[in-house]
Design goal:
Elements: E1 3-6, E2 11-17, H1 22-35, E3 38-41, H2 47-57, E4 62-64, H3 69-80, E5 86-90, H4 101-109, E6 113-116, E7 125-128, E8 136-140, H5 145-155, E9 162-167, H6 173-186, E10 190-193, E11 196-199, E12 208-211, H7 216-228, E13 231-237, H8 250-253, E14 260-263, E15 267-272, E16 280-284, H9 292-302, E17 305-309, H10 321-332, E18 335-338, E19 342-346, E20 355-357, H11 363-369, E21 378-380, H12 393-399, E22 403-406
Parallel strand pairs: 2-13, 3-12, 4-5, 8-9, 16-17, 20-21
Antiparallel strand pairs: 1-21, 1-22, 5-7, 6-7, 9-11, 10-11, 13-15, 14-15, 17-19, 18-19
Helix pairs in contact: 1-2, 1-3, 1-6, 2-3, 3-5, 5-6, 7-9, 9-11
């Protein structure tokens, strides 16, 4: 289904409640399934979290997680420690093209029994759950942080806990720290010093309720809207100034575009009252790669050149996001150069109207490009792909007086 998105006003105002972070939600669901006694409030309503919940309660041999990359990584580790259970973990065609070998090798080194059903190094995989006795594992530090988090989440369930030795420069540190904080909030002890992560063994948790902060990646689209509007005042809940999410760096990055973030007790208000269009910006996004698409489109809409680095993990997401960004930005009139880990944008003075933006089965492509409707009408193909992380996205756009025409 295609949606045509447009906006006819200079000022954007409104209040929105954003769904809970799927990153926090999915970590807590694994912890709750391993140890019980947890109650989770403000759980994400995203497809990825619904898939995770279903997988954790499934009694079937085959568990299909569709497009949910986080679920694939976390569940690979989770099912490895489910003693006596055999599971075939599979997903969409794109998921079967996304590598899992480094995590599988790490788990095998700990004694896990995992085999490939089709292609070596890729899902689907067959996992024979067993009691793992290993108390340490080593792996490269510059891989997806989801591999590292997957091991951290099962660490406390092992008889001696788990020490994870990271080799080289760590990528996406905030996500590792988020996992550690989620474990600690649940009552599990752990530490992360230099390149060593230590998770202490735990047999039982005390009952408690843990609230999930709203998703900062989802907030990024409203930062983009505020930046592209002439004036804006958008209130978003539930957010904290001391956030665990790496994408909370948005508050600093978007100051360059004239967007101020005011923190209240349980919300943020984005305000823009003056036009701010820097000629160019440079950002290292190694710790927050999921907001690269949003920033690139913001810059395109403002006529701002940008260089975004630290993007090597984008090539193994729902699509190759660097290639996808290049393709779609150039349809709108921009000029993009990409490499394995960076993107450079030279924007056009004028934008092409009513362009159909392909979304490549990637929720973030749809949501990153929608805000440019403040400048020119745009058509989003396969528009409901947003349900992967943010099912209410278009309803929230309409609250902010965007016109969303469904075809």
């Amino acid at each position: 289904m295609k949606f045509k998105v447009s906006h006819s006003q200079d000022t954007v105002k409104g209040e929105l409640k954003i769904t809970g972070s799927k990153s926090e939600s999915n970590r807590l669901l694994i912890i709750e399934s391993l140890f019980k006694n947890l109650q989770i409030s403000n759980l994400s309503n995203s497809d990825d979290t619904q898939v995770m919940k279903k997988a954790l309660t499934s009694n079937e041999v085959e568990v299909d997680i569709h497009h949910a990359g986080t679920a694939m990584r976390f569940l690979t580790a989770y099912f490895s420690v489910q003693e006596g259970r055999e599971t075939v973990l599979t997903g969409s065609q794109r998921m079967q093209e996304r590598p899992i070998q480094l995590l599988v090798e790490a788990l095998r080194s700990m004694g896990a029994e995992i085999s490939y059903e089709k292609n070596e190094g890729y899902p689907p995989i067959r996992i024979k759950g067993k009691k793992l006795q290993a108390n340490s594992v080593s792996l490269q530090a510059n891989i997806s942080s989801q591999y590292i988090s997957a091991l951290m989440l099962i660490g406390a369930s092992l008889p001696q806990g788990l020490t994870i030795n990271l080799e080289g420069q760590v990528t996406s540190t905030p996500y590792i720290l988020m996992t550690l904080e989620m474990l600690q909030r649940s009552g599990i002890q752990g530490s992360f010093e230099e390149n060593t992560i230590r998770i202490e063994a735990c047999s039982e948790l005390s009952p408690k309720t843990i609230p999930v902060e709203s998703d900062w990646s989802s907030a990024s689209y409203f930062y983009s809207i505020a930046a592209l509007a002439e004036e804006a005042e958008i209130k978003l809940s539930n957010y904290r100034e001391e956030s665990l999410q790496g994408d909370s760096c948005l508050a600093t990055i978007y100051k360059q575009f004239g967007v101020e973030t005011n923190f209240d007790e349980n919300s943020i208000t984005l305000k823009k009252s003056k036009c701010s269009k820097p000629a160019s910006i440079t950002e290292d996004l190694r710790n927050s790669p999921d907001i690269a698409q949003t920033i690139a489109v913001t810059c395109l809409g403002l006529g701002t050149a940008c260089k975004l680095t630290g993007l090597h993990t984008l090539k193994i997401k729902e699509t190759d996001r660097l290639v996808a960004l290049k393709n779609e930005i150039e349809k709108l009139g921009g000029e993009v150069v990409i490499s394995n880990d960076h993107l450079e944008l030279k924007p056009s003075a004028t934008l092409n109207k009513n362009v159909a933006i392909a979304t490549y089965n990637d929720h973030r492509m749809a949501m990153a490009f929608a805000p440019i409707a403040l400048k020119i009408p745009v058509i989003i193909e396969d528009a409901m792909v947003v349900s992967k992380s943010y099912p209410d996205f278009y309803n929230d756009l309409e609250t902010l007086k965007f016109i969303v025409e469904k075809d």
